[in-house]
Amino acid sequence: MKKAMLLMAIGFVVVTISVFFIYPYLRYTTPVNLEGAYIRYAEHEFGKEWDTLVIKKTGASRNGYHVVRRWKYERVLDSKVLTPEYKRMKTSIQFLEDEGLFVEEESGIRYSFNNNKNELLAGTTIYKKIK
Predict the structure, then answer these.
(1) Distance between CA atoms of 2 and 21, rounded to whole angstroms?
(2) How far is CA 1 from the centre of its chain?
(3) CB 40, CB 61: distance < 8 Å
(4) pLDDT tens digits along 104-127
(5) DSSP class of residue 82?
(6) Which of 44, 64, 77, 85 could pair with 73 as two cysteines, CB 3.0-4.6 Å apart?
(7) Which tens digit of pLDDT belongs to each residue from 62-91?
(8) Stated pTM of the model
């Protein structure tokens, strides 16, 4: 009986140590499949938006990525669709291991990645991975 209690206590200590020291490392690792193309579409009373992010790993850093953003906006004014506006931007993001977030270097925008749903989140904006 005393041996069983001792083994249970040792098991509890091992599990507790694992939770405190190993779990944070597992939680904040770079997602394996961050590279790819992500899309977002929004429609509202003022217009329609199409947003695409193409993300590729940089060779210089294990936590660095290049991002190309393509954006199209069709503004609506007095129930008429105006000439579409286009933007194309290049930027870089870095994975911050201590926070578990990706940060855009120029703007400071913070992204998180949901591996289960293949989604990239920037605040309330959700980008769906398509490839």
Answers:
(1) 29
(2) 50
(3) no
(4) 888 888 988 887 888 888 888 999
(5) P
(6) 85
(7) 788 899 999 999 999 988 989 999 999 999
(8) 0.69
pLDDT category at 13 given cuts 50, 70, 90 is low
AA letter at 117 = K
Specify the higher pLDDT residue, 130 or 31.
Answer: 130
Are 67 and 38 in contact, with CB atoms under 8 Å apart? no
Integer Cα distance of 111 and 93 in angstroms? 9
Residue-wise over 42-53: b if at least 16 C-beta within 10 A, else e?
A: eeeeebebbbbb
Q: Helix, strand, or coil here: 87?
A: strand
Tens of pLDDT, residue by residue over 87-108, are 999 999 888 877 788 888 888 8
Spell 107-128 as b/e; 16+ CB within 10 A means b. Answer: eeeebebeeeebebbbeeeebe
Handedness of CA 115, 121, 125, 130 (dihedral sign): negative
